Amino acid sequence: MTNMYNMKNINNYSTSKLYNLVSQNAKLQNQNSGASSTKNISADFASILNEKLNGVEGLRFSKHAETRLFERKIVLSESQKQKIVEAVKKAEQKGVKESLILMDSIAFVVNIKNRTVITAADSRELKDNVFTNIDGAVVI
Predict the structure, then answer these.
(1) Is 0.85 surpassed by the pTM of this model?
(2) Helix 39-54 crosses helix 15-33 at what angle (to 10 degrees)?
(3) Which of 6, 16, 107, 128 has the most CB atoms lying inside 10 A of its own CB?
């Protein structure tokens, strides 16, 4: 059976649509193999989906943040992403809910509970900018 999903476009699907597509595929595979349960395939799917949604590091970027990074030509290295993950952990330990993370002349507003970068701004936009709805800041 050919793979009917293009994994490069996985972010274009909602969680429920992905689950439904994979469940349908699992049922077809089980019918072809004579199996009666989709539990194992569904469990595998759940772990893969969580990894894709949360990233290997447990850090996600909202669509808004992805757009801002693209528009501002900000490309993050794996090292920089890891620094953000560490900053999120520090903020979480202090009980911060929404944090401003400053790194390498880039500002990120991050929802700590969801581990989601909400927006990003580079040094040009930092001047005369006011960040609201944050309860902590981490400078790395």
Answers:
(1) no
(2) 150
(3) 107
